[in-house]
Amino acid sequence: MVRPALGSGACGFDEAGRGMTNLTVRELKQAEWDRWDDWLALQPWGSPFSAAWWLDANCRAFGGHPLLLGVFDGEQLVGGVALRITDVGPVHVVRPSMLYNPIVIAVGSAQSRQKVLATLLEDMARRRLVVPSLACTTDMVDLRQAVWHHWNLMASWTVVITLKTWTLDDVSPAELNKMRKAQRAEVTAHVEPPDADVLYNLMKASMTRQGQETPLGREQLRILIEATGAHGMQTVVRGVDGVPLSAGFVMAHGTRIAYHIWSGTSPIGLTKGAAVAMYVGRLEQLQARGYEYLDCCGASLPGLSDFKLSFGGTLTTRLAISREPLWYKAARLVHVCLLWFKRVLRRH
């Protein structure tokens, strides 16, 4: 049930901003997490990456402790951010969530939203948080206050597909040919109960093929998938023999936008068009469930961006902000160099 004490519907504050002279920031303790998640579900671009359940799962999977900051206009919640913190001596470092780590601000005038953002950034600075990166969802394009408060601004890209109008006609001819190959091979795509082992094995096959390491371990993936519950959906493509050939996992908080966070395809699956069958099957399933958008969660790498665009999406800019003291940047550079030397020594 939605608890209106933390907000007044999707807007959170009115368009005029009512002056917003009493903005405060405080930490939301665990007893208030459900109320935060209820408010988040009402926001037009509220994402699972800001949810308390996702923050808790990330802390269990990767370490650190949760810090959920809420911005209040009087007693009314109007924004906030969910952060995973690790303490290195007296230093408090914000660790990234998977793919996004967005600031959420309720609907309102541009001026009101900037006031909320400024108040939150000032509070994070007072807490002396080291923030290597906060990757915002695609709705957060007005980050002027971050620049004015001397935060760094970085850009990357993702592909967003409008599901309301999407049809197979939006898929490129090359991918449609692979889709027909999948049909001839009699592979099938279905929504199945989440299975971390199936997904991890296929993810690892894809990453190995690309010469990269899997970004998380099997047990970490299992923790995150189990935490998603009803917020997650796994699509699996199987051959006629029942062997998994491709799989993808999407996540949502609310019913407006879904996020494609993990996928993988076996070498045999690639030859049978299973990756395309998985993408198309997922789009059809999300469309049938009433979602409006699918964010493909990243399109900055050569080749990968073209593949995602071939399904009819739009290349969209996403912004990230960071706040790192010079001493922290220097220490991180030394750490990266040491890791590189260790890898070189292991090879020899």
Question: What's the short story on this structure?
Answer:
InterPro entries: Acyl_CoA_acyltransferase (IPR016181), BioF2-like_GNAT_dom (IPR038740), PG_Glycine_Bridge_Synth (IPR050644). With 348 residues, the chain is α+β, with helices and mostly antiparallel strands. The protein is 37% helix and 28% strand.
CATH superfamily of the largest domain: Gcn5-related N-acetyltransferase (GNAT)
Shape: globular
Distance between the termini: 59 Å
What Rg do the Cα atoms give?
21 Å
Low-confidence segments: 1-11
Strand content: 25-35%
Number of strands: 13
Number of continuous helical runs:
11
CATH topology group of the largest domain:
Aminopeptidase
Helix content: 25-40%
SS-based structural class? alpha+beta
The helix/strand series, from N terminus to C terminus, equals EHHEEEEHEHEHEHHEEEHHEHEH
CATH architecture of the largest domain: 3-Layer(aba) Sandwich
Q: CATH class of the largest domain, please? A: Alpha Beta
Number of domains: 2
Mean pLDDT: 89
User: How would a crystallographer describe the biggest sheet?
Assistant: 13 strands, mixed
